[in-house]
Design brief:
Blueprint (H helix, E strand, L loop, with lengths): L36 H6 L3 H5 L1 E4 L4 E3 L2 E2 L3 E4 L2 E3 L2 E2 L2 E4 L4 E3 L2 E8 L2 E3 L2 E8 L4 E3 L2 E8 L4 E3 L2 E3 L30
Parallel strand pairs: 1-4, 2-5, 3-6, 4-7, 5-8, 6-9, 7-9, 8-10, 9-11, 10-12, 11-13, 12-14, 13-15
């Protein structure tokens, strides 16, 4: 009736792609203008080696989540989230501050968002301030708050031209002798 055989556990890379995986982070321009794309192509990305952690839609979590990996939230979290890359799914909800390099919001976030690249998809509901280097908001997304552009270095201020030394005003000498 039952057959007890050991079968290897399926690997995370062997899972079928259901369209909810996190896309690779695009290359961001560097201030020097050089890119390391050729070196990057030779090595496998760290994101694919780590895999994706998922908080499913039937789970509720209270407390902070911190890590360097990728996280998809389809359930609800009351607390701060700080991860490498984050997707808040359509059924996902976060009540707290969110921080990651890449953030894609399809669900609900009530709190601050901070990241290098932030995307609000048409189904997103965000109530809080966003700090990002790159930002996109799809038509239909709800957003209430402020957007602050991230930490790019400001160009060095150019010194204002100094006015030439003022010429001394001509002196008026009264040549009339007192009488």
């Amino acid at each position: 009736m039952f057959n007890k055989t050991k079968s290897p556990a399926p690997s995370p890379q062997g899972r079928a792609d259901n369209g909810s995986s996190i896309p690779p982070l695009p290359d961001l321009p560097t201030p020097g203008g050089s890119t390391a794309a050729p070196a990057r192509a030779a090595a496998p990305s760290a994101a694919s080696a780590r895999g994706l952690s998922t908080l499913s839609s039937d789970l509720q979590f209270e407390g902070g989540i911190t890590g360097g990996g990728d996280l998809q939230i389809d359930g609800s979290i009351k607390g701060d989230v700080r991860v490498g890359r984050l997707i808040v799914g359509e059924t996902g909800a976060v009540e707290g501050n969110v921080s990651a390099d890449y953030i894609e919001v399809r669900g609900r976030v009530v709190g601050g968002i901070s990241g290098k690249q932030v995307k609000l998809i048409a189904t997103a509901y965000v109530d809080g301030d966003i700090t990002a280097e790159q930002m996109s908001i799809d038509i239909g997304a709800y957003f209430q708050g402020r957007v602050l552009q991230g930490r790019r270095e400001a160009p060095a201020p150019t010194p204002a031209p100094r006015p030439a030394a003022p010429e001394p005003a001509p002196q008026i000498i009264d040549m009339k002798a007192p009488s």
